[in-house]
Amino acid sequence: MLRRKVLRDMRQNKGSYTACLLLIAMGLTVFIAFSIANDNFTVAKQTLYAQGRFAEGFAEVSAMPESDLHRLRRIGGVAQISGRLVEDVRVLPAETGSTSVAGSVSGETVSSAGGTGGTIYLRLVSKDLEDLQRLNDSTAVWGDPMGSRERHLWINAGFAEEHGLEIDDTISVVAGGRAHDMQIRGAMLNPEFVYIMREDSHLFPDPYRFGVATVPLDTMWELFPDQRGIVNDIVFTLEPGTEYRRVEELLELELEGYGLKRIYPRDDHNSHLLLEEESEVLTSFATFFPVLMLGVAAFVLYIVLKRLVQQQRGQIGILKSCGYTRAEITRHYLSYSVILAVMGGIIGSVLGMLAANTVSRLLFEYFALPEVYAGFSLRYFFFGTALCVGVLGVAGYQGVKHVLRLSPAEAMLPPAPPPASKTIFDSAPWFTRMLTTQGLMGVRNISRAPGRSGFLLLGIAMSFMLVAANYSMMAVNMPMFLFHQLTELETYDVRISLRSPQPRRAVLREVEALPFVTRAEVLARVPVTLSHRLREEDIELLGLPEDNRLYNILDAEGNRITPSAEGLIISERLATNLKVRRGDTITLQSPYLRGTRGSDTGAEADDKIQVPIVAVIPQYIGMNAYLEVEALERMLGQPAFTSAVLIRGEGEGEEVAAMLSEHYRDSDVVTAVDSRQRMIGNLEEMWELFSVFLNLFALIGAVFSFAIIHIAAFVTLSERSRELASMRVLGMTPKEVFSVIAFEQWFLSFFGILLGLLPARYLVAGFAASYTTDMYTMPAHLPAEAIVVGFSATLVSIWIAQRFALRRVRSLSLVEVLRERE
Amino acid sequence: MQTGQTRRALVEAYGLKKRYRMGEVDVYALNGVDLTLYDGELVVVLGASGSGKTTMVNLIGGMDRPSEGRLRFADRRLHGAGEEELTRYRRSEVGFVFQFFNLMPNLTAWENVQLAAEVAPDPLDVDQLLEQVGLAERREHFPSQLSGGEQQRVAIARALAKNPRLLLCDEPTGALDLGTGRHVLKLLRDLRDRYGKTVVIITHNENISLMADRVVYLKDGLVEWVKHNEEPLPPEQVGW
Ligand SMILES: Nc1ncnc2c1ncn2[C@@H]1O[C@H](COP(=O)(O)OP(=O)(O)O)[C@@H](O)[C@H]1O
Ligand SMILES: [Mg+2]
Q1: B120 contacts in A (CB within 8 Å)?
Q2: Which of A268, A384, A806, B78 is deepest in the core (most CB within 10 A)?
Q3: Of all atoms in ligand 1, which is nearest to the CA of residue B22?
Q4: The domain spanning residue B127 has which CATH number?
């Protein structure tokens, strides 16, 4: 019988219970969807890694004869080692009629984030067809075997899809200064290229403009005749139980002679790193969101049940007088929680499992991962539902326990009126004297119902906090993070990247002579290891001319800093990691430094140089150090060189880029011609796509905080309907009656917003920290503008909630409320 | 009705006291009540508002515990009984009727009665009870769809559903008009006649006491007098 009562009670109060149910179901949906997606993601990653024998260490050298590789195999701790030739090439737009990539470039509208246009690049990675144990091997999506010495390649699946490439299609690439037609033999996924970006500083993959292809090793040598017999990229795995650092030291010694540029463990591999991070994001999403939802659901239920048992005091008395035991009555009231939890559990699980597939598919699409599903498991359903039952059960019990403790005779009596004593506000007569009677009532109510007032206060604080923090991220920090580099720091039209360092003056002279170029600057990029005491970082040192105009160095206030010849300007993140400050001296090592060994031009005997730090600047993308270019050359003992040319031209940046691209079409030296405008455009498109997601979360946050305020106002009303009705009987208008509640709410809002200010700061910092890695530093500003927005949004929520409340006061039936036995 | 010698004592109270703490001072709602209720009799408890009627009936019904004194129901000892024991007692032996009916608003008439029948060890038939209180066709109605008199009749059926030996009615007519009130009183007496229950009716209306076998008058927490009615009036003739 009581079961029927439960159902009918719930129907009567369906608003609150539906809200609870929605919160639980939503929380559980997110929990299950993201947990399962993360499982799938992890399994897919592991499958790909295992199938492809993903390396544990990576080294880049200038050139090493392939035949020397066997020496490295003997190094203690190295399990397997593979050498490859890796080169970036440009894809040529093909002539009409041919079955080449251009057919699809011009023929199809590609709806991907990037859109069409701009230069297309491929990273060719050699594949030793004879080595069956080769590391970082691909997993086929479709295709036929490649033939040795054939112009064959396997392309990464994302690129193939973007360009509509099929088996035996050909594409033209520029290699070794000539164009070659290559035949597509298959599409693949590769553990090394799950998150495919041409440069680490690109924030998003662009599968249209950049792809990866494997090519038979001997074909590769034919494409690059000057590299015949050479490999420039070495990957290895470790014997079980071996420490990476030890192997690295040994390998460093061995590879020194081959121009070692960089050696790093799997943990520093960008694609791997981003995968790990994504996994973390999924996990934190699967926890943070549901916990928030469940927490609020528990609180709402607590309030609702508390109110319910207060209202049903008499009914509880009856049940007791009928001889129902306390356990039976407790069970009755807890069944509200359990019903909600189980219903939420079932709805959430079903939706979660459905959503899991969608989320997984999105992940598999964004990351180049095989579609492997971890398999169906009820684990999360049981865990999630049990958690909900537990949490809501406790919340419900907290809500009902004090009424259940009453003796049956007491339960039959109306509750004693709340003790009306002086409140803290009354101890400040100057304050109460300022108030109207309604105001005074409101203020006293606040201190008499501390729980409810606290809830509203917290709700308002949270609402303000969420809106202000979200706004800061969306409108200020994220755009600053994304666009600062390409709009404030880099101001060229076109950047030309060179395959290897080239003589600076010759390059400049040549580029400046082009009719459409108005200004050209060099950018020297040198891999260095900076260390200070026991800390060490591998970074890229950028050499800039003193009169730089196309690549700026800006301090925190946005003022230009001239590249110094006296010492390094380093990024804040680097300074933090090395624990150094301006004025400190740090140690610099570089493979480029080795060219000076033996000479007595500044380099010390052990290839190390001490350099002072002259400035520390904010940098959001990457972690770099800067030095005046001539000083850089002097320091390294190198002749004048450059790795890239920055160009400002006449007219539109894209046009200049197109002309340069055409001019260097067959160049063996130019690996990339990038238009800054195009890069910004790409970024904007990605950002638009991304911000839809983020805005969705912001919206959920806003709805969520509105719900809290609404619930608080609703509870206030229903708890006090009798008091309010009495005021109406006295002849007060609904507006006047309502002003008691309104005053109370505005009063609390003021303090709620104050209360939310500090946490908002921390929330922004937390958001920023969650995006920040060694590669990316998310700024964490909470600008005044965000505070104003948060403030207004909160006030609007309150105002709307109050309109609803006012409507309820108007419709309050005086007769009913007053007749109602309390 | 029956003669005194053959009656069995059902409830026996000696020196029954109930103390409430009101702020700093102790207030005795009952200040040493001696009282015996016999099997099958209809007793009316009279007294001014605040004289301790409700308190006394609550103690007898096991809704509350006495502060002092002894209280027995048949061979149960109620003073010093624990919560669990009192619950078991209420479950099987006592039915309550209240001034404000106190039906579960979310249960129909039938369900309200069934609610009590469900937990009792030896319940009466719910449909039959509803028929006896004249509400057979109203069984599917919710309390809000019933008049005050009808609600009180459902409440009486509910109190009876457990088939208790003792029926305690705290101002059962207090919220009803004359005609309806008489109807309810008649029902109570008929049920007593049919089932042989002990019925206690609390009231501050002296007219009602005319229908009782015995009248107990409370004043300031003490039994002031007890009167035996040789000729109880039928409820139809009770004035208001
Ligand atoms: N729970 C309680 N707390 C304090 N005092 C009470 C309580 N219940 C009853 N009283 C007091 O005990 C006295 C008797 O009350 P009650 O038995 O309800 O009287 P009656 O039913 O005859 O009107 C009254 O003075 C009342 O104020
Ligand atoms: Mg009373």
Answers
A1: 323
A2: A384
A3: 4
A4: 3.40.50.300
Which residues on chain B are in Cβ contact (under 8 Å) with A12?
106
| Chain B contact for A9 (CB, 8 A cutoff) | yes
d(CA B173, CA B182): 8
How many domains does chain A contain in total?
A: 4
Cβ–Cβ below 8 Å for B162 and A324: no
Pocket of ligand 1 (CB under 6 A): A 410, 413; B 20, 22, 27, 29, 47, 49-55
Q: What is the ipTM of this complex?
A: 0.79
Note whether residue B10 is domain-resident: no
Instruction: Verify that A617 and A680 share a domain, yes or no.
Output: no
Give a yes or no: residue A760 inside a domain.
Answer: yes
Q: At what angle do helices A676-719 and A653-663 cross, to 10 degrees?
A: 140
Asked if A536 and A617 sit in the same domain, the reply is: yes
- If one counts every other C-beta atom within 10 angstroms of the C-beta of residue B154, the result is 27
pLDDT digits (tens, 9 = 90+) for A254-267: 898 888 888 999 99
pLDDT digits (tens, 9 = 90+) for B49-61: 889 999 999 899 9
Supply the range of the domain harboring residue A739. 417-491+676-822
Give the nearest ligand 1 atom to B51 CA: 22
Inter-chain residue contact A4 with B102, CB threshold 8 Å = no
Tell whether A505 lies on the interface with B, counting CB pairs under 8 A.
Answer: no
Q: Which of A277, A368, A281 is nearest to A45 (CA)?
A: A368
Please tell me the residue having the least CA distance from ligand 1 atom 18.
B54
My answer on whether A388 and A447 are in the same domain is: no
DSSP string, B153-190: HHHHHHHHHT--SEEEEESTTTTS-HHHHHHHHHHHHH
Is there a single domain that holds both residue A218 and residue A69?
yes
Nearest Cβ partner for B119 among A12, A322, A410: A322
Q: B119–A328: do the CB atoms touch at under 8 Å?
A: yes
Tell me how far the alpha carbon of residue B18 lies from the centroid of ligand 1, in angstroms. 10
Clarify whether residues A169 and A210 are in a common domain: yes
**pTM for this prediction:** 0.70
**Closest alpha carbon within chain A to B84:** A325
Residue A421 has pLDDT above 70, yes or no: no
- Residues of A within 8 A of B98 (CB-CB) are 318, 412
Tokens of B181: 């009130």
Which residues, at least 6 apart from A202, have a Cβ–Cβ distance to it below 8 Å?
Answer: none
Res A799: pLDDT: 86
| Beta carbons of B119 and A821 less than 8 Å apart | no
CA of residue A407 to ligand 1 center, whole Å: 15
Q: Which of A293-297, A357-361, A718-722 has the lowest mean pLDDT?
A: A718-722
Q: Are residues A222 and A303 in the same domain?
A: no
Q: Rounded distance, CA B225 to CA B214, Å?
A: 11
β-partners of residue B36 are B12
- Is residue A500 assigned to a domain? no
Nearest of A523, A495, A540, A667 to residue A89 by alpha carbon: A667
- Residue A295 belongs to some domain of the structure: yes
Where does a domain end: A389, A413, A437? A413
Contacts of A8 in chain B (CB under 8 A): 106-107
The answer to whether position B14 is within a domain reads: no
Per CB-CB distance under 8 Å, the chain B contacts of A821 are 100
B102 with A318: Cβ contact below 8 A: yes
Domain count across chain B: 1
Cα A325 to chain centroid distance, Å, stands at 54
State the residue for tokens 């905080």: A705
Residues A703, A818: one domain?
A: yes
User: Which of B65, B90, B111 shows the shortest C-beta gap to A321?
Assistant: B90
**Do residues A487 and A426 both lie within one domain?**
yes
Please say which residue of A413, A438, A457 terminates a domain: A413
Residue-range definition of the domain harbouring residue B43: 38-65+88-237
Closest CA to A230 of A84, A362, A350, A128: A84
On whether residue A421 sits in a domain, the answer given is yes
